Amino acid sequence: MASLDDLKKRIASVKSTQKITKAMKMVAAAKLKRAQDSAEKGRPYSEKMNNIILNLSEGISDKENAPKLLSGTGKDQIHLCVVMTSDRGLCGGFNSNIIKKAKSYFSRLSGEGKELKIITVGSKGNDQLKRVFGDKIIENISFKNSKNANFFDAEKVSKIIIEKFQKEEFDICTIFFNQFKNVITQIPQAQQIIPLKTDINDKEKSEDNYEFEPDEDEILTNLLPKNISTQIFKAMLENSASEQGARMSAMDNATRNAGEMVDKLTIEYNRSRQAAITKELIEIISGAESL
Amino acid sequence: MSEEFKLEVVNPEKSFLLKDDVTEVVVPAFEGEMGILKDHISIISFLKPGIIKIYSKLGEEKYYVEDGIIEFKNNNLSILTSSIFDIKNMEKSKIDEMLRVAEEETAKDNISDQAKYLIDQKIEVLRSIN
């Protein structure tokens, strides 16, 4: 059994760990509020953007010559996967969930004999993927220095993707991120962004005919790259809200576990202290009796 | 009948401006300035760098934009832009800085005609508000 001194040290160390996790939880809670706010505020833009694109793609006259970003290259041989994770750890299953989702997608692709290319956004995803898929990772982007998700960063990512698309380095692009549902639930998502998947059913079909200035094709050509930035930005916002949520609940759990551990250790400490006292008493009494 | 319609300006970070009492909006559309009144036909258009003028009961408001898309439908005007500034709050130093960057851009020779056109527009507008 551990000596009294050892127990005392362990209690102190668990207590100080608890202090750290508690502080991290508080920080995450404060950041979560902000991240959630900006995720909510960012929604109208991406929704509107989506609506406009839907209206446009319905109205497009010449489907054959539609921009490649919308219609795709006509093949689905090379897949580009953009895995978006956080730059920091200690956030529970946040990163692992995305990676798990991505990995199952990867293995399905390789089962179908498709070629795979990976871009990781965020260093944690890169750390986890490079062991198995290291040769597939063509780019690693990290925004360690920016405090919050901002549109500028999203544009950087989308620029890289679009450049690669124009060089015909891939046919289909999918992004992986966590969608924020609430503090304890984040849903890993895979969303295909190139070619754009239009879900006409989930939108009231508009009968109006729009007037376009300049014409549809030109608007679409200009709009699609913007839409990719918007989608990526949305993913970044969702991700950062999810990250803080996941961290908050992970740290909450850690704080609770540390509390339980301190209780258990304190009981053990008290018991062994009592045992030592009893032992000493017995020694004294039996010493006195033998006289 | 009132002659007012709804206007929403959103940028990627948030809903920038929401008004339901505007009477006229003038936007710098790609093919020239365009005034929008109530019951305008549904339209989607691009913006080039310029000034958005919003007229309401309270008077006129001016915003500087660099790019964006507008959609008008059922008397709802949505302006989507990633760069919008209230001209009243724009500091001179910032305008100067933007001008400097734009002038550097336009001096490069590897830019496309369209990009050059947009930057020239931008410089012109920035000079006019400066």
Characterization of this structure:
The complex is a heterodimer of chains A (291) and B (130). Chain A is α/β, with parallel strands linked by helices and 291 residues long. Chain A contains 6 helices and 6 strands; from the N terminus they run ααβαβαβαβββα. Chain A folds into 2 domains: 48 residues, ATP synthase, gamma subunit, helix hairpin domain (Helix Hairpins), CATH 1.10.287; 229 residues, Pyruvate Kinase, Chain: A, domain 1, CATH 3.40.1380.10. In chain A, strands 3-2-1-4-5 form a 5-stranded mixed beta sheet, sandwiched between helices. The model of chain A has no long low-confidence stretch (mean pLDDT 87). The radius of gyration of chain B is 15 Å and the shape is globular. Chain B is built from 2 helices and 9 strands; from the N terminus they run βββββββββαα. In chain B, a hairpin with a 2-residue loop joins β7 and β8. At the A-B interface, α1, β6 and α6 of A face β4 and β7 of B. β6 of chain A pairs parallel with β4 of chain B.
Q: What is the topological layout?
A:
The complex is a heterodimer of chains A (291) and B (130).
Chain A: H1 4-59, H2 68-71, E1 78-84, H3 94-111, E2 115-121, H4 123-133, E3 137-141, H5 151-166, E4 172-180, E5 186-194, E6 211-213, H6 216-289
Parallel strand pairs in A: 1-2, 1-4, 2-3
Antiparallel strand pairs in A: 4-5
Chain B: E1 5-10, E2 15-29, E3 32-36, E4 43-47, E5 50-56, E6 59-65, E7 68-73, E8 76-80, E9 84-86, H1 92-107, H2 113-129
Parallel strand pairs in B: 1-8
Antiparallel strand pairs in B: 1-2, 2-3, 2-5, 4-7, 5-6, 6-9, 7-8
Brief summary of the model shown:
The complex is a heterodimer of chains A (291) and B (130). Chain A has 291 residues and is of the alpha/beta class.
Order of helices and strands of chain B, N to C? EEEEEEEEEHH
Could you tell me how far the N terminus lies from the C terminus of chain A, measured between alpha carbons in angstroms?
A: 33 Å
Alpha plus pi helix count of chain A: 6
What is Rg of chain B? 15 Å
> Ends of chain B: how far apart?
39 Å
